[in-house]
Write a structure and sequence with these properties.
Elements (H helix, E strand, L loop, with lengths): L3 H5 L6 H9 L5 H4 L8 H28 L16 E2 L6 H5 L2 H4 L3 E6 L5 H14 L4 E5 H13 L3 H6 L6 E7 L6 H14 L4 E6 L7 H4 L2 H13 L1 E6 L4 H10 L1
């Protein structure tokens, strides 16, 4: 039997041990075993496995954030909460940041003028969801419709829609900035209908619901879409002018 301290003190891990770590799917043990402080065999093994789990969780979060395809690295930690954000009576800032709405298959709709912080908040909530182990996808709505129309032309629409089966949260950014074709509107409606009470959505829009006819053309389709979105939704409104414009003006001065 090899003395424990001799093994700990510098014997190079053999290829066979590395191979066994690989077979056991211990992705980090072979890299970190020399860095773990030793007090006793049981303490060492426990600390080694805890670090393995920690690094696995860290890698998972990084993968989830990468797969979400956020457009930037904004997070809740640097989000500026202020009185211009009007919350509904049934949720507050802490409730929103808890991400419990995903468990409940509820939606969050952020409505306000451009530059008021809607996309930042949506991205921050999405990133927090990734950190909590949820699968997230971020889309500019116009790009999502382009991809839907392309999938339809290529007879790949069923496989495209299937990509969302294991997704927990979908973020649809900038709903209303560009009008959609009738075909695009119908495709988006079908997708959101698939997600109804099955997934959570975060939607940002510069238009109030009464103005969504501008982008969806068909009033009946618009009414059906809004009905599904707000049935289980937290609607936040953002008042005031653009943060970006105010920041630019202050720098100019």
């Amino acid at each position: 039997m090899i003395p424990w301290l001799l093994w700990k003190g510098g014997v190079v891990m053999s290829d066979s041990i590395r191979s066994m770590c690989k077979s056991l799917r211990l992705a980090y043990v072979s890299e970190i075993y020399e860095t773990i402080p030793f007090e006793s065999p049981s303490q060492y093994i426990e600390a080694l496995f805890k670090e393995e789990f920690r690094l696995r969780d860290k890698a998972k979060v990084q993968r989830l954030i990468r797969n979400a395809k956020f457009l930037d690295s904004k997070s809740l930690s640097n989000y500026e909460w202020n009185e211009r954000i009007r919350f509904p009576t049934h949720i507050d800032k802490d409730g929103l940041m808890s991400i419990d709405f995903i468990k409940q298959k509820q939606n969050v709709v952020l409505i306000g003028s451009p530059g008021t912080g809607k996309s930042h908040l949506a991205t921050g909530l999405g990133r927090k969801a990734c950190e909590m182990g949820y699968e997230v996808r971020f889309y500019r709505v116009s790009l999502l419709i382009e991809q839907l129309e392309q999938a339809l032309k290529q007879d790949k629409l069923p496989s495209f829609r299937k990509k969302f089966e294991k997704i927990d949260l979908i973020i649809l950014d900038e709903m209303g900035y560009l009008p959609f074709s009738k075909e695009g509107s119908e495709l988006l409606f079908q997708l959101i209908a698939d997600w109804y009470e099955q997934k959570s959505l975060i939607i940002t829009s510069n238009l109030e619901f009464s103005q969504w006819n501008r982008i969806f053309i068909d009033s009946r389709l618009t009414a059906a879409l809004v009905d599904r979105l707000i049935h289980h939704a937290h609607v936040l409104t953002f008042n005031g002018g653009s943060y970006r414009l105010s920041n630019a003006l202050s720098k100019a001065k």
